[in-house]
User: Fold this.
Amino acid sequence: IKVVFSGMQPTSGVTLGNYLGAMRNFVKLQHEAQCFFCVVDLHALTIPQDPVQLRKNTLDMARLYVAAGIDPDVATIFVQSHVSAHAEMGWLMEVSCYYGELQRMTQFKDKSAKAEVVTTGLFTYPALMAADILLYDTTHVPVGDDQKQHLELARDIAVRLNNRFGREVVVVPEPYIPPREAGGRIMSLQNPTQKMSKSDPDESATIHMLDTPDAIRKKIKRAVTDSESEVRYDPEKKPGVSNLMVILSLCTGMSLDEIAGRYTGYGQFKKDVAEAVVATLEPIQQRYKELCEPGVIEEILEKGAQKAEAVSTPVLRRLQDALGLLPRK
Ligand code: TYM
Assistant:
């Protein structure tokens, strides 16, 4: 692992799935590689956003990165739209990937089926994501399981460009996706065969990183399990219980086997899951509050944008040059 890049959309209600599937790993990886963690506000614009809310969510997303333990002196935290190379590289990706490839993206199919308006940006979303990644000569991309197909596209584009030019113009990135039992796919509390999602209309299905302890306890108490009473990891037959086991395991460090051996029913199990989630999120929420002091996160983001720009501009130039764009004198 040399260079790590990942991004999160600044939409309200960052979830426990976002944290356990991705952000938690960012914190670990920051000491192992050069890391770039981006607030992808341009991606958020693919669906209609209230401007005031988008600005607030952008700051909040950055605050959560820092509150979760990403050290801005170690890793680079920045806002996508602050570094114009992203939009420029996005175009170069759009002309390097095929209509048919984008049409096959399952996330586009899902989102466009639900959306009231389907913007062109929603369709080309994965091309911009490939741009984000390739701009930093990224070797590894930590994401949840739902981003796998987008990552494969980024790899395909990179391989294609290198083949076309017969040399390594861009670095082919590797996915860094935890297996399900390690948080790669945290499921909805109400419908545990679906992933936990920010946009779930059922409030009790999703734990948000900024939920109060009481809200967290209520949601876990109400979480769907099954009619047995055995705490056993079996995502096929016992999706609800298995999901809670994964959450408990990640929040405490206990293995799934240890957890399975501990309980004879769901009552105490659910209580322990709730307390483990509260104990995990409370210190993050505390730091988040401190970071709401005016100016603090803004300064971090300014430094981050400068670092990100310094690294990404030469990579953009390298590809522009390979593609035959005339350098400005
Ligand atoms: P976004 O904002 O939807 O989600 C952020 C991260 O959280 C992960 N995630 C989950 N992991 C486990 N279980 C879940 N239920 C769950 N829900 C979400 C996502 O996989 C993701 O890692 N397209 C990206 C943002 C992006 C990006 C990039 C990521 C833009 N450019 C470049 C990596 C590299 C997205 O929409 O993430």
